[in-house]
Amino acid sequence: MTESRDSSTVPAETAVPLPDETAATHPAAPIPAAPDETSAATPVATLAPVEPAPDVAEPDAATRSLAVVALEDRHPNLGLAPISRTAGYPAAAEKLRADVLRSSAAALESAVQVDPTIRARYNEAALRQLLRDGELLVERLSMCLASDTTRWLAEYAEWICPIYRRRGVPLADLSALCVGIRKAVAPLLTPDELETATRSLEAAMAVFKRNSRLGGDRHKRNALWKWMYRGV
Q: Does the reported pTM lie above 0.85?
């Protein structure tokens, strides 16, 4: 049997309100009025008139050549041509390669004159090693002259810093070698060639100075700082 259910038995509180009751209890939100067509229109931003570009003089041949060298001083993986080894002063580079041993010896003598402690801090074998190191620096300098860029010497300086830290050679001694190399090669170069050599050597010296601040370099430290950071 099924029981008949009467709507009168439903409690009053559960009854669903009629549409008119819902409208009475929850009035609808007023519909916004349409904008007045006679009101003032919103101003539209206008672009300022473009002034004609001033006349620029065409770059000369020297400026174009420097731009080409700067463009080629990029990694070949970027899709650009590698650095040309003959874009600079290849004749000056050959002169340096032919006289690399004399230039290295003169640079070492100049470094010893500036810092006499070098002779006391190194034995004969270590001085010969420094002489060989000077030859490699001169060889890298010749590459910079041939291509008219500082890349070869600056990168080489970055590579060899950990080696000299392991050997116990202060990087300040290599900077002194670079100063001596510039003095040694100055009589062999023209003013333009010497300017390129100076830029390359200064780039290497900047790398040595930056890396000498890292821990492990054997330069003489300040006694106060050494006492404060003892055991660190």
A: no
